[in-house]
Write a structure and sequence with these properties.
Layout (H helix, E strand, L loop, with lengths): L2 H25 L12 H11 L3 H14 L14 H16 L6 H12 L2 H28 L3 H37 L6 H23 L4 H21 L2
Helix pairs in contact: 1-2, 1-4, 1-7, 2-3, 2-4, 3-4, 3-5, 3-8, 3-9, 4-5, 4-7, 5-8, 6-7, 8-9
């Protein structure tokens, strides 16, 4: 009788942890450091490891890393938010894997399809965040002009807090709802579809590779392709080891 309540509580706890970690990782996207921690292969792997399922994290990161490797958020271009989507997919996959006997790639592929819209919701959130950061920066610039440099740090902190809060508030309900819904639906998937879903998982990186091949026109693109291929190969070896 109390088992579903316990399960929902555990998933809520995992959703909050993953959202907090994901919010911090998301700041690396362009607000602080930019150490590439926000890349899907890194961010999703970190979240998966924290939730106790490293394989789900790596498998989720590989999908998003290859799919949008040729569309980094450079300058004013706002790419689909693969950071939030990969973090959400890693977290939900980790939760679902504890509630079903489906294979790793099948679970991750189902979660990927379910959470793909997060890419575009994240892009909309990013657009609104940049408007908010613009207002904060203009206010900070005015204070600096008035010689009140010490107060500027409060504005920097406010900008970081705003970015983290928006990412957290987007991730938390998405991860929790996704974990609860897919944990209920996954056991209903017949075993015969497990293999088909696994094949579906490997079709996504092929789409990303095809997209990269179309852009192999200069050295930078070739280097990106080589790095993406090595990441995918390394991830596959780890997953199946």
């Amino acid at each position: 009788m109390h088992e579903p309540v316990t399960l929902w509580y555990v998933m809520l706890e995992k959703a909050l942890i993953a959202s907090a970690v994901g919010g911090l990782i998301w700041l690396d996207r362009y607000q602080v450091f930019q150490f590439m921690i926000s890349r899907p292969i890194v961010g999703a792997t970190v979240v998966g490891a924290i939730l106790g399922d490293l394989s789900a994290g790596i498998a989720s990161g590989v999908l998003f890393e290859l799919l949008w490797l040729r569309r980094p958020p450079v300058g004013g271009f706002i790419a689909p938010d693969v950071t939030l989507a990969s973090v959400a997919t890693a977290a939900v996959s980790a939760c679902v894997r504890s509630a079903t006997d489906l294979g790793l790639t099948a679970v991750v592929f189902v979660c990927f399809l379910f959470l793909l819209p997060v890419c575009f919701a994240g892009r909309k959130m990013d657009e609104r965040l940049r408007l908010g950061l613009g207002k904060i920066s203009r206010s900070a610039a005015k204070l600096q002009t008035d010689g009140r440099d010490a107060v500027v740090w409060l504005h920097i902190g406010a900008g970081l807090a705003l970015g983290f809060s928006l990412a957290f508030l987007l991730l938390a309900p998405v991860i929790y709802i996704g974990a609860v819904v897919l944990s209920r639906l996954a056991p209903l998937i017949p075993p015969i579809l497990d293999r088909a879903l696994s094949f579906g998982y490997f079709s996504v990186p092929l789409v990303g590779i095809a997209d990269l091949l179309l852009g192999l026109e200069d050295k930078e693109t070739i280097v990106l392709f080589a790095l993406g291929f090595l990441v995918a190969l390394g991830g596959a070896l780890i997953i199946h080891s």
